[in-house]
Write a structure and sequence with these properties.
This is DUF2273 domain-containing protein. This protein is mostly helical. It is about 60% helix and about 0% strand. The protein has one domain. The protein contains 2 helices and no strands.
Length: about 60
Amino acid sequence: MSKAVVGLLAGLLLAIAATAGFGAFLLAVVFGVVGLGVGAQLDGSLDLKALVPGRSRG
């Protein structure tokens, strides 16, 4: 199982602590996406550094 899948599952498990309802569903989606992104970054299949503008020197 890749780190991206583990991150996705971890994010979804964190959302279980939320209360039931549509808000909890949206929270589960957000946590799942964040977990998937972190796992993909750790796997090396996603480069989050490309999203952050670098500091240019002089």
